[in-house]
Specification:
alpha+beta, Ribosomal Protein S5, domain 2, 2 domains, 5-stranded mixed β-sheet, 3-stranded antiparallel β-sheet
Length: about 210
């Protein structure tokens, strides 16, 4: 096992070190102990799936997956499958009316049998779980960060992210797929002449990484 220690070079990269991991020191945090150096352990063994520790799941993005939505994407991160659709509405939430700004928001959910055992539909339970709310807020905030809402005008784009099959990384797959669906929806608006300039300011993608020390 090699340890990549937090020895920062002038170019901002991390330098590998043959030394053992630094012992923890007392401090605030979980259990009252924090590591002196925040590093990443690179394991020599591959995962059960055959992937190396630093290897991404295979990523496949299929655009135009459904007919009716302005943007639709089936994104696959390995065995994880997420359907992301972008829907455009010519209205905005009440707090934005009359301000000339648009809105981008997201909703997230999992099919009952997206996992090994069936889970209840949240609609049947009558409320969304904390995990669902956390993830859809993360998706919405990530996408709003890359949009000029003034260029969007007074219209809203809702990204619906539905997990068809979960095998890890569902929230990062949802962010990545939702961005592509958002771009496709914006292209439809521009082609129709509904907006004059592209409101997309940059690209957004996500990946989850495990870190140990």
């Amino acid at each position: 096992m090699d340890c990549v220690r937090c020895v920062q070079r002038g170019n901002g990269t991390l330098a590998p070190s043959p030394e053992p991991p630094c012992p923890p020191r007392e401090g605030r945090g979980r259990g009252g102990v924090l590591p002196r150096h925040y590093g990443t352990r690179i394991m020599s063994d591959s995962r059960p799936s055959g992937r190396q520790p630093d290897q991404l799941r295979p990523v496949v993005i299929q655009r135009g997956f459904t007919r009716h939505a302005e943007g639709s994407v089936l994104v696959c991160f390995g065995e994880t499958r997420v359907l992301c659709t972008a829907s455009v509405e010519n209205r905005v939430p009440g707090f934005l009316r009359g301000k000339g700004e648009g809105w981008v928001t997201a909703e997230y959910g999992m099919l009952p049998r997206a996992t090994h055992t069936r889970s209840d539909r949240e609609a049947a339970r009558g409320k969304q779980g904390g995990r669902t709310l956390e993830i859809q807020r993360l998706i919405g905030r990530s996408l709003r960060a890359c949009v000029d809402r003034n260029a969007l005008g007074e219209r809203a784009i809702t990204l619906d992210c539905d997990v068809l099959q979960a095998d890890g990384g569902t929230r990062t797959a949802a962010i990545t797929g939702a961005y592509v669906a958002l771009v496709d929806a914006v292209n439809v608006l521009m082609k129709r002449g509904d907006i004059k300039r592209n409101p997309i300011l940059g690209a957004v993608a996500a990946v989850s990484v495990g870190v140990s020390w």
